[in-house]
Amino acid sequence: MWRKSVSPCWADVHALGAEGGAADSTCNPLHVACTRHSKIHMSPVCFPSHAPYRACLLPLVLFFALTGCYVEVPPDAPPSVSIRLSELLADPDPEVRRTAAEALGKIGHQSAESALLAALADQDPRVRAAAALALGRVSDGKSGAVLVRKLADPSESVRVASALALGEIDHSAAHEEQILHALHDADASTRVAASRALLRLETVSFSTDLESALKDPNPQVRQGVAAVLSETGDTRSLPSLLRLLQHDADAGVRAEAAFRLGKVGDAAVLDVLSAVAERDANPRVREWAHWAIRQITTQPGTDSENRRGQ
Is 4 left (phi over 0), alpha (psi -120 to 50) or beta? Predict the structure, then answer.
């Protein structure tokens, strides 16, 4: 097990804005989402304590949630504001519920966890997605099991939000095992979401269960699992990555394998990379194979043990 390296941000985070719109991964490696390392720390939200409840609270929720502007608040304000916002999660207007969930995530107070967990069952997928993302900011890990189950949500935006949230909460071996179980779900969209969730974890362990998912009929799952395997930092992943590079029918999977070999490979993989760089039918795969060769040959020391993260 090793610590995940920081790669360019994974474009799948943008899928949250389009219901059912899966990100296009054709020939493009899945880079580790770096929101953990570039997280926007939103300011607390301030509400006047004597304003009429709904008439004044809702406009302020909308204003501050959308602008994220900074307002000085007393130390005891976040709990009381969280209580008020949690009550709005039961509002009949789904836009109010969604905005309240987003604001709770920006405040980040743990008292909102129970209300946000309940909001994961909201009938509106926008509310469920907002609640999932908010839980990634307020939970201490207790919501992990519920978020894993939301990887099977019928809404794409909720599945992506749950995967992102799982990468933000405290990691545990139990959560990793639960996500691995979802990786073998009968539904392909659940398996894709599970691979995203694994890639978001701070650390992940090599396992034969993970490796077996490379046989998945869905190319997005295979691509995601290839990325996760390389992030384990375990040299046992190299034969599998080489097989994908040489034989997988999907160009996106082959490109992912080339990119990952450039990250974790050594001189022993150069012959295969060179052959792919010259002969693969897809120009993007050839480009990534050339990139991987440069990575391996220009960095000091090509022995895999020297290139593993500590």
Answer: beta
Given this model, what pLDDT does residue 27 score?
A: 64
Query: Are the CB atoms for 191 and 159 separated by under 8 Å?
Result: no
Q: What are phi and psi of 296, to 5 degrees?
A: -75, -40
Is the pLDDT at 91 greater than 80? The verdict is yes
282-298 per-position pLDDT tens digit? 999 999 999 999 999 99
Backbone angles phi, psi at 109, to 5 degrees: -90, 135
- DSSP string computed for 144-183: HHHHHHGGG-S-HHHHHHHHHHHHHSPP-HHHHHHHHHHT
236 close to 266: Cβ distance less than 8 angstroms: no
SS3 content of the chain, % helix, strand, coil (to 5): 65, 0, 35
What are phi and psi for residue 62, nearest 5 degrees?
-60, -45
pLDDT in tens, 160-219: 999 888 888 866 677 788 888 889 888 899 999 889 889 888 888 999 989 999 999 999
